[in-house]
Specification:
Blueprint lengths: L1 H30 L5 H8 L7 H24 L1 H20 L4 H20 L1 H8 L2 H33 L3 H4 L1 H15 L16 H19 L8 H23 L13 H30 L5 H6 L2 H17 L5 H22 L10 H24 L6 H28 L6 H29 L12
Length: 468
C-alpha cells in the first residue's frame, strides 16, 4: 500500500497544478484585455470597435467548447490538451505582434479555440484522478483558483499596461504556456481514449450546429446593451434560434450525441446548470461595472481599481476549500444555497454603499462577502454536475458547464450593461447611480440562484459524496 501511494500521489499533484495553471491562463485572458481596449483602439485604429478583441474570444470559446468536450470523451485527453496549450501559446505570440485590429481578432479566435480545449478538459482530468471527498477538494482548489484568477485580471492587466503597454497582457502567456506544455507532457496519462468502450463516430452535425447556435447567441448577448436592434441582429437571432432547435432534434436522433439531452431530465443537473449560468452572469457583469465605479466615480487609476478587487480574490481562495469540506456534512443544495445567499448579501450591501464620496475601505466587508459566497458555492455546484453523471460523459458535462458559463458572461454583461445605460451620463454621481442599479439587479440574480438550488438540488436527488 505505501508503494502504491507513493506512486500515485505525484501524478495527482502534477495534474492539479496543470489544470490550475492552464485554467488561470484562460480565465485571465477573458477579462485582462478589457483594461487595455482604449490603448488597443488608439494604436491599431480600431477606436470603439476594439471591443471585438473581447467578443471574438468569448464567442469562440462558447462555440467550440461542446465540440472539444465531445471529442475529448472519445479520443482521449492527452493529445487534445497538448494541442490546446500549444495553440493558445502560439496565438498569444501572434497577438503580441498584431499590426492591425483584424489580425489581433484572428489571433483571439485561435486563442479561443485553444482555451475551449483547455477548459473543457479541466474537470474530467480531476475527476479521473480523484474519488469521493478528494475529488471535491480538487475541484474546490480548481474552482477557487479559476474564479479568483478572473477577478484579479483587471489589476494584473492595469499593472502590465501601465508598465509595458497593452501587448504585455499577451506576452505574459508565453513563458507560462511553455511551462504548462512541458508539465502536461510529463503528467498526463497516455491512454488514447477517455472511456473503455470502442470509439464511436463523433456527432459532427451536432457539433457544427452548436457552434453556429452558441456563437451567434453569444454575439447577440454581447451586443444586448445597445438600445435598438438592427437588421443584422434580427438575422443573427433567427440563425441562433434555428440552429439550436435543429441541434436539439439531432441530439435525440443520433446514437452518440454531442450533448446528451437526457442529462437535463435529472433535476439536480438542471439546477446546477441554471446556477452556473446565473452565477457567471452576475459575477462577470457585476465585476465589470464595479471596476468602472472605482475608476469613474472614485477616480482611481486602472491598477488601483483592479487592486480593489483583491478582497474578492482572497475570500474566494479561502472559502472555496470550505465549501468542498461542507459537502461532507451538509446536503449539496444547502451548501450551494448558503454560498449564493452570502453573495447576495454582499452585493446588496455594495448597492447601498456606492457613492462618489464612499471611502474605499468601507467596501471591503461587502467585497469579502461577495467573494466568500462565490467560493463556497463554486466548487460544490460543479461537483453536483459531475457526481450525477456517468464517468464516460464527464467531458460532455464539462463542455456544457463551459458553454453555459461563457453564455452567462455575455448575457450578464449585456443585461447589466443595459441597466447601467439607463441612467446615462458620465459624472461621478451618474456612474454611482448606474452601478447601484447594476448591483441590485445582480442581487436579484443571486437570490434566484439560491431558490433554484434549494428546490432542484436536494439530498433525495444528489448522493452525498463519501470520503475515500
Amino acid at each position: 500500500m505505501p508503494a502504491e501511494k507513493s506512486r500515485r500521489v505525484p501524478p495527482f499533484t502534477g495534474v492539479l497544478l496543470l489544470v490550475m495553471v492552464t485554467t488561470g491562463l484562460v480565465v485571465v485572458d477573458a477579462t485582462i484585455v478589457t483594461i487595455g481596449l482604449p490603448q488597443i483602439g488608439a494604436e491599431l485604429a480600431g477606436g470603439s470597435s476594439a471591443e471585438s478583441v473581447v467578443v471574438t474570444y468569448l464567442i469562440t470559446m462558447g462555440a467550440v467548447t461542446q465540440v472539444a468536450g465531445s471529442v475529448s470523451d472519445r479520443w482521449g485527453r492527452r493529445p487534445l490538451v497538448l494541442a490546446g496549450i500549444a495553440l493558445f501559446t502560439l496565438a498569444s505570440l501572434a497577438a503580441t505582434q498584431a499590426p492591425t485590429l483584424v489580425f489581433l481578432d484572428l489571433a483571439r479566435v485561435a486563442q479561443g479555440v485553444g482555451a475551449a480545449v483547455i477548459m473543457v478538459n479541466g474537470i474530467p482530468l480531476l475527476a479521473g484522478r480523484y474519488d469521493g471527498e478528494e475529488r471535491n477538494l480538487a475541484i474546490g482548489a480548481w474552482g477557487s483558483f479559476a474564479t479568483a484568477a478572473g477577478l484579479i485580471a483587471p489589476a494584473v492587466g492595469g499593472l502590465l499596461i501601465d508598465t509595458f503597454g497593452w501587448r504585455a497582457v499577451f506576452a505574459i502567456n508565453l513563458p507560462l504556456g511553455a511551462a504548462a506544455l512541458l508539465l502536461a507532457a510529463r503528467v498526463l496519462p497516455r491512454s488514447r481514449r477517455a472511456g473503455p468502450e470502442p470509439r464511436p463516430r463523433p456527432d459532427w452535425a451536432g457539433s457544427l450546429l452548436i457552434m453556429v447556435g452558441l456563437g451567434t447567441a453569444t454575439m447577440i448577448m454581447l451586443r444586448s446593451d445597445r438600445a435598438a436592434w438592427t437588421g443584422a441582429d434580427t438575422v443573427l437571432a433567427a440563425v441562433a434560434a434555428v440552429a439550436l432547435m435543429i441541434f436539439i432534434i439531432v441530439q435525440f436522433r443520433v446514437g452518440s450525441p454531442t450533448l446528451e439531452p437526457r442529462l437535463f431530465a435529472k433535476p439536480a443537473f438542471s439546477g446546477a446548470m441554471v446556477a452556473i449560468f446565473l452565477s457567471r452572469a452576475l459575477t462577470t457583469g457585476g465585476a465589470v461595472y464595479l471596476v468602472l465605479y472605482f475608476a469613474e466615480a472614485l477616480r482611481l487609476g486602472p491598477t488601483e481599481a483592479g487592486l480593489l478587487m483583491t478582497p474578492i480574490f482572497v475570500a474566494q481562495m479561502i472559502t472555496g476549500m470550505v465549501g468542498s469540506k461542507l459537502l461532507s456534512y451538509w446536503p449539496p443544495g444547502l451548501v450551494i444555497g448558503l454560498g449564493y445567499a452570502l453573495k447576495a448579501v454582499g452585493l446588496a450591501a455594495l448597492a447601498v454603499l456606492v457613492t462618489p464620496d464612499t471611502p474605499w475601505w468601507v467596501l471591503l466587508v461587502p467585497l469579502l462577502a461577495w467573494g466568500g459566497g462565490g467560493g463556497i458555492a463554486g466548487a460544490p455546484v460543479m461537483a453536483v454536475a459531475v457526481n450525477v453523471t456517468d464517468p464516460d460523459r464527464v467531458g460532455m458535462v464539462a463542455g456544457t458547464v463551459s458553454s453555459l458559463a461563457s453564455l452567462g458572461a455575455g448575457v450578464g454583461t449585456g443585461m447589466l450593461g443595459a441597466v447601467f445605460a439607463g441612467y446615462g451620463g458620465s459624472s461621478p454621481q451618474a456612474v454611482a447611480d448606474g452601478v447601484r442599479a447594476v448591483l441590485l439587479a445582480a442581487t436579484a440574480l443571486a437570490v434566484l440562484a439560491v431558490l433554484t438550488t434549494l428546490v432542484l438540488i436536494n439530498p433525495r436527488r444528489v448522493p452525498r459524496p463519501t470520503p475515500q
